[in-house]
Amino acid sequence: LLAKKPEWKLRISGHTDNVGNDATNMKLSEERSKAVAKFLSDRGVDAERLLVEWHGEEQPIADNSTESGRQKNRRVEMEVKFD
């Protein structure tokens, strides 16, 4: 899609569960989101079109008290930006 629509941008957001300390989780989520951006950039997507952010454990989507919830919170989200 990004190759066909050069005016579109992509927001890439890295997240973690709550295991570990805040600083480590923030760094891990940064590395996750940057790895996805590098993957896309290596395949020809202009890095200027990639909005990379990281949130550590600040935005869980599931309960961190269960293994399945923690697994869901370890993620990278991508959102196409049309503006």
As laid out across the biggest beta sheet, the strand order is 2-1-3
How much helix is in the residues? Answer: 25-40%
Return residue spans where pLDDT drops below 50 for at least 5 consecutive residues: none
Shape: elongated
Q: Mean pLDDT, rounded to whole units?
A: 96
Q: What is the radius of gyration?
A: 14 Å
**Count of alpha/pi helices:** 2
Care to count the β-strands? 3
How far from one another are the termini?
Answer: 15 Å
Strand content: 15-25%
Largest sheet: 3 strands, mixed
Structural class: alpha+beta
Describe this structure in words.
This protein has 83 residues and is of the alpha+beta class. The protein has helices at residues 22-42, 67-73, and strands spanning 9-15, 50-54, 75-81. Helix 1 (22-42) links the parallel strand 1 and strand 2 (50-54). 18% of the residues are buried.
Write the layout of secondary structure elements.
Layout: E1 9-15, H1 22-42, E2 50-54, H2 67-73, E3 75-81
Parallel strand pairs: 1-2
Antiparallel strand pairs: 1-3
Q: Which features would summarize this protein structure in a list?
A:
83 residues; alpha+beta; three-stranded mixed β-sheet; 2 helices; 3 strands; 34% helix; elongated
